[in-house]
Write a structure and sequence with these properties.
The complex is a heterodimer of chains A (196) and B (225). With 196 residues, chain A is α+β, with helices and mostly antiparallel strands. Chain A has one domain (47-191). In chain A, 37% of the residues lie in helices and 21% in strands. Chain A has helices at 2-49, 132-135, 162-182; strands spanning 62-66, 69-78, 81-92, 97-105, 111-116. Chain A has a 5-stranded antiparallel beta sheet with strand order 1-2-3-4-5. Chain A is globular and about 75 Å long. The N and C termini of chain A lie far apart (68 Å). In chain A, 32% of the residues are buried. Chain B has 225 residues and is mainly α. Chain B has a domain at 2-146. In chain B, strand 1 (156-157) and strand 2 (160-161) form a beta hairpin. In chain B, helix 4 (68-90) crosses helix 6. The relative contact order of chain B is 0.17. Classes of the chains: A alpha+beta (196), B mainly alpha (225).
């Protein structure tokens, strides 16, 4: 009996201490990890969209509340003026969610370009949504809902990867909807002339 | 002092983890595509192995024999999660490269093997020396294998160009079969070297597998009560 109690006590103590340590380490590294993930996962997509931005869209990001959910908005400055913003949206692909970063020009709400952030599609088929030939179809067009050619729209799907193409289109449409609802709520400091 | 050095240095050559006692082969085969990946994995293992040996040795009198394996695993798993979080925070590209193999350090048999066979029976300073030695030996082995594969497979070393444009990379070396072939060649080389050393000392060459109690410790795993 005493031996059993001792086993329970020692094991519980060790587990409890390890839980405390892990919680502390997690808390300490949390903000830095978030920044690293944004830099290495979202950063490359943002660079594709806003090649000429003067600022770091990841560092200047803000979260805007939309129906109780935080939408992260990445701003791009050109000559100290807010030129565009990017929003990440997800579409249901073949191998999981496809993350699409959609850039909007703040002047007229048109789409400046898209970049793929997370992708688990079949290599050689669905994974081809990252190719410029497909992505560039979304650039420089008005911010209105779009569809694949088979659905009566004008986006050419990738042969053999209709599902992945449709997921990308769905994510872009989702981003357009989010943009239209939050575009009046961007923080003032972005439009200041003297933004660092 | 002598004993301390003996425990430290055995991991560097005599009981070199992947090449001599052939333990922990999963990361050895999987993450040695480049020297940088091998070194990163090796450093993570040094950290986990040294600290787990330290903690297990400190707690060895408090841990009841029947739940010792569970305790060792909790200690190793906590350390591995720490490494994972720190790697995400400070070396994210390396974390993306190593992927699933960082959490898998928990089940790396070197960690549990050293805890069970050495740290739980020896004083703290010897356990730390043993963990450091084994860890450094493991890291050096991974870096070596990674260097060989990277040099042949990419024509680079730690990302530096070694060969000119004329070099046609030997892509086989960075695929999974290349890892097995490389490891096999290194093991064959180690055996040849050992036998050559024995012959120069006038001893008989070793043929076939050796059953060496020192590095196995399985016979010691029966409960101590």
């Amino acid at each position: 009996m005493r031996e059993a109690l001792r086993m329970i006590l020692v094991l519980s103590l060790i587990c409890g201490l390890s839980g405390l340590t892990l919680a502390a380490v997690r808390q300490a590294t949390g903000p830095r990890i978030e920044e690293q993930v944004l830099t290495y996962v979202q950063g490359p997509a943002l660079n594709q969209i806003f090649a000429n931005a003067d600022n770091n869209p990841v560092l200047d990001r803000v979260a805007i509340d939309l129906d109780g959910e935080a939408v992260t908005v990445f701003p791009a400055m050109v000559d100290g003026q807010l030129a565009g913003v990017a929003i990440e949206a997800f579409g249901r692909g073949y191998g999981g969610d496809i993350g699409v970063m959609v850039g909007f020009a703040t002047a007229d709400g048109s789409i400046t370009g898209i970049g793929i952030t997370t992708l688990k599609e079949t290599p050689g088929l669905g994974s081809r949504v990252v190719e410029p030939e497909f992505r560039e179809q979304f650039g420089s067009r008005p911010g209105q809902d779009m569809a694949l050619q088979s659905q009566g729209g004008d986006i050419a799907a990738i042969a053999g990867a209709t599902l992945s193409s449709a997921a990308t289109v769905a994510a872009v449409n989702e981003a357009i909807r989010m943009y239209s609802r939050i575009k009046d709520r961007f923080p003032k400091r972005w439009s200041d002339q003297d933004t660092p | 002092m002598n004993r301390l050095w003996k425990e430290f240095s055995k991991g560097l050559w005599k009981d070199l983890p992947p090449f001599k006692i052939v333990l922990g082969l999963c990361p050895v085969l999987a993450v040695t595509k480049t020297a940088y990946n091998g070194l990163g994995m090796g450093l993570a293992v040094i950290f986990v192995l040294t600290l787990s040996n330290l903690l297990v040795s400190l707690l060895r009198k408090a841990i009841p024999a029947k739940v010792r394996i569970a305790c060792f695993i909790v200690v190793a798993a906590s350390l591995v999660v720490c490494v994972e979080l720190l790697m995400q925070a400070y070396a994210y590209p390396l974390y993306l490269q190593l992927g699933i193999f960082v959490p898998l350090i928990v089940v790396n048999c070197i960690i549990l093997g050293r805890a069970e066979a050495f740290a739980s029976k020896n004083p703290t300073h010897l356990a730390v020396a043993d963990g450091l030695g084994m860890g450094i030996g493991f890291a050096l082995s991974l870096t070596f294998l990674g260097s060989v594969r990277e040099m042949f497979g990419y024509g680079t070393w730690f990302g530096m160009e070694l060969a000119g444009d004329w070099y046609e990379p030997f892509a086989f070396m960075i695929e999974a079969p290349g890892a097995f072939v490389c490891l096999g060649l290194v093991l064959a080389g180690m055996n040849a070297l050992t036998n050559w050393q024995r012959r120069t000392r006038g001893l008989e060459a070793i043929e076939g597998p050796i059953h060496d109690c020192k590095t196995c410790g399985l016979c010691a795993t029966k409960p101590r009560i």
